[in-house]
Amino acid sequence: MKTEITRACPFCGAAGEQLQVLHDLGDFTSGAAVCCDSCGAIGPSDDSSARAVALWNGAALQALGKGVPA
Ligand SMILES: [Zn+2]
C-alpha cells in the first residue's frame, strides 16, 4: 500500500513535487521525513517512509486546525 502526501505544507502552502520524503537526514534523524522544498519545513520522522508521510498528513492537518492561514 502506497501512502501519498495528501496535505500541503501548513507553513507555506506548497504541495505536489515540492514535498518529498527524504531519508538519512544526518544529525537530525536516521529515519525518513517529509520535507518542503519551498520553505524547508521538515515533518515528523519515522523509520518507515510510509509512516513518516502519514505523520506529515496528520501534523499538517493539526497545524491547519490551529488557525494557520491557508
Ligand atoms: Zn513549506
Question: What's the structural blueprint in terms of helices and strands?
Answer:
Elements: E1 19-23, E2 32-36, E3 42-46, H1 49-65
Antiparallel strand pairs: 1-2, 2-3
Keywords:
1 helix; three-stranded antiparallel β-sheet; alpha+beta; globular; 70 residues; 21% strand; binds zinc ion
Question: Could you say how many structural domains there are in total?
Answer: 1
By DSSP, the count of extended strands is 3
Q: How can the largest sheet be summarized?
A: 3 strands, antiparallel
Overall 3D form: globular
What is the typical, i.e. mean, pLDDT?
82
The sequence of SSEs as H and E is EEEH
The value of Rg in angstroms is 11 Å
Structure classification: alpha+beta
The residue fraction in helices comes out at 10-25%
Bound small molecules, by name, code or SMILES, are: zinc ion
> What proportion strand?
15-25%
Describe this structure in words.
- The protein is an alpha+beta fold.
- It has one domain.
- 24% of the residues lie in helices and 21% in strands.
- The protein has a three-stranded antiparallel beta sheet.
- A hairpin with an 8-residue loop joins β1 and β2.
- The protein is globular.
- The model has no long low-confidence stretch (mean pLDDT 82).
- Zinc ion binds next to loops.
